[in-house]
Amino acid sequence: MKESNEFILAGIREFRERHRLAWPDVTVLSAGDILTALSRHRVLYGPTTPDYAFYEAENADAAEAVVREFDSCGAKVFREPQFLPGARVWVAVFSEKTTVPPGPWPALEEPGPWKNPLRNRRVMDSAALPGELSPFRFKGEDYLLENVLAHFLYPGTPVGFRFHENHFRIRRESDDQLISIPLLDHYFASAYVWNDRCYCFAMGQTSGACIGTHLDEIWSDDLVSWSPVRRVFDFSDRDEHFCNTSVTFDGERFILLYETNDPKCPVFTFHFAESADMVHWRTIPDAVYAWDKYTGGGALHWIAEDRMFYLSTLDLFPHPVTRKAAFRFILSRSADLIHWEDAPDDRPILVPDFYHRPDPVGHPDVYEISVSDAEYRQMPGYLRVYFIGGNQWGVSDNQVAEYPGTMRDFFHEFYR
């Protein structure tokens, strides 16, 4: 929700007064990509995390007016890159002399008469390690593709430890049995089944933990023996890195969603490719989602009755009380992969449970601030939703929730 200059100005002044800071000890920045901007200044992902607050300005001119006002007060000021006209513009305040207070954030109120339709939310009962899950049905059995970060294999080690051992697994859901490990040194994998063949797409790591400039594909007829790796895309020449993928079929062609850190857009952006055979892929011109905002972990589904693509995706938002970056899951839809209609802002698919601790033994001080990477499995009479809860920085768990109906009915709940 865009916020007035008066609200932003008051919030920045309150931040200074609460921490008893002199203006030279305060930093104010404006940015089109708030996550990258805060990370660049070591506000996020650093050994210590300074306290901060951030706001969405009405437009770039309004953000500039805020920055100028505090520049005249003597605060440190930074102006990070903006994006296309109409893109979101954020204003943040922080200080290296503060630290984020520990403990859970206040719970969010569920606004208005609309109620989220998901029920029975819980931590998943499985030996699967925390990470992105891709549910699929293969020859009458339900399976999960399970992405594994190597640091979970070595308790007590930091995120990124032995990253070349990152991999994905295939797990049978009925008995929680591990079936195979198709590829090492790959991550952000997803699965799609067509004509009794399972196709997997994954980012090949090239320069560090969960960083890779090429997207690979393999396939199998038995989930044990796999084809040689086929390179779908290689963006090494422009140093553009891949993340999540998702595949759907619109009755005429296969559509591949692939997520990259396109430098023309906020840190993660969805692009789309098409194929007639699940092997040879061509990028669809002008098909982009989230050129104007942070996104990630997308799941794409074609609903034939609606002649519509539905996209479930991560969305960054400021917690209304703490003003910290939180991450929810939202829904959008499109008939052509170019023009998108987000569900109303007060109707997210999932929001964090700020009192939940995803790893109470290993990280008792970490509370959930993010829900991400939701995927779906249609069960008899209900829809099961798989997702990750955690903090977006390596502490997480796998969770599930349910909806008493079909996937189409579930998506319609958000547009009624």
Q: Can you put this structure into words, describing what you see?
A:
The chain has 416 residues and is mainly beta. It has 2 domains: 5-94, no CATH class; 119-413, Neuraminidase, CATH 2.120.10. Helix content is 10%, strand content 40%. It is built from 4 helices and 24 strands. The chain has helices at 5-19, 34-40, 60-73, 407-413, and strands at 27-31, 52-56, 76-79, 90-94, 119-123, 133-138, 141-148, 167-172, 177-184, 186-194, 197-204, 214-220, 230-234, 242-249, 254-260, 269-275, 282-289, 299-303, 308-318, 325-334, 341-342, 370-379, 382-390, 396-403. It has a 4-stranded mixed beta sheet with strand order 2-4-1-3, with helices on both faces. Strands 5-24-23-22 form a 4-stranded antiparallel beta sheet, with no helix packed on it. The longest helix has 15 residues, at 5-19. The model has no long low-confidence stretch (mean pLDDT 95).
The CATH topology of the largest domain turns out to be Neuraminidase
Please trace the helix and strand order, writing H or E for each element. HEHEHEEEEEEEEEEEEEEEEEEEEEEH
Which whole number gives the mean pLDDT? 95
For the terminal residues, how far apart are their CA atoms?
A: 21 Å
| Tally of domains | 2
Query: What is the CATH C level class of the largest domain, in words?
Result: Mainly Beta
Given as residue ranges, the uncertain stretches (5+ residues, pLDDT < 50) are none
Oligomer classification:
single chain
Count the helices. How many? Answer: 4
Strand content: 35-45%
**Helical content band:** 10-25%
